[in-house]
């Protein structure tokens, strides 16, 4: 610091005036471009991210079974209807089903494509909030075809 003071004292009056004017301007430029603008850009980016996340939440709530208005607990018959209708739409038949307590239904397949069954179960969970609490799968003599028992629960 002493060396800097000594250097400043050796300057001419004109150079001292230039430094007295330029130093605060340089400090202000460094402050603006080095601190304020990057912080402002970061805040702007975060605000855009928050806005995008808010839109995503609205979309997810609108698409989720829990977010849809007027959808309360499913009764046994509506769960049965949902299971039979979605299986029909997936082009396979239920060999047997049995309604259980507490909004559960057990479904048996004597012969079903394993991939089709998994796709159907994913559709039930993702679109209707119906999950499986128990699955029993056994092989058949045909490749890719299984015998299965699935217990489904309505989450909504």
Features:
membrane, 156 residues, rod-shaped, alpha+beta, single chain, 4 helices, four-stranded antiparallel sheet, 22% strand
Commentary on this structure:
This protein has 156 residues and is of the alpha+beta class. Helices cover 56% and strands 22% of the residues. The chain has 4 helices and 4 strands; from the N terminus they run H-H-H-E-E-H-E-E. Strands 1-2-4-3 form a 4-stranded antiparallel beta sheet, covered by helices on one side. The longest helix is centred in the N-terminal third of the chain and has 51 residues. 10% of the residues are buried.
Along the chain, the helix and strand elements come as: HHHEEHEE
Strand content: 15-25%
Number of discrete helical segments: 4
- Tally of extended strands? 4
Uncertain stretches: 67-76
CA gyration radius, whole angstroms: 34 Å
**Strand order, largest beta sheet:** 1-2-4-3
The global form is rod-shaped
N- to C-terminal separation? 72 Å
Helix-strand makeup class:
alpha+beta
Instruction: Look at the structure and give the mean pLDDT.
Output: 85
Helix content: 55-70%
Largest sheet features: 4 strands, antiparallel
GO cellular component, one term: plasma membrane
Transmembrane segments: 21-43
Membrane topology: Single-pass membrane protein
Subcellular location: Cell inner membrane
Short characterization:
The chain has about 160 residues and is α+β, with helices and mostly antiparallel strands.
């Amino acid at each position: 610091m002493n060396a800097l003071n000594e250097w400043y004292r050796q300057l001419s009056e004109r150079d001292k005036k230039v430094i007295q004017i330029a130093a605060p301007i340089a400090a202000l430029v460094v402050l603006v471009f080095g601190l304020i603008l990057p912080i402002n850009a970061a805040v702007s980016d975060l605000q855009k991210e928050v806005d995008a996340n808010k839109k995503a939440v609205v979309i997810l709530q609108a698409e989720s079974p829990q977010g849809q208005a007027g959808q309360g607990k499913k009764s046994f018959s509506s769960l049965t209807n949902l299971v039979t209708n979605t299986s029909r739409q997936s082009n396979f038949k239920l060999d047997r089903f049995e309604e259980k307590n507490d909004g559960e239904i057990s479904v048996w397949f004597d012969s079903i494509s394993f991939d089709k069954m998994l796709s159907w179960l994913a559709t039930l969970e993702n679109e209707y909030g119906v999950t499986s609490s128990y699955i029993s799968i056994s092989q058949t003599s045909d490749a890719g075809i299984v015998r299965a028992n699935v217990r489904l629960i309505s989450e909504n």
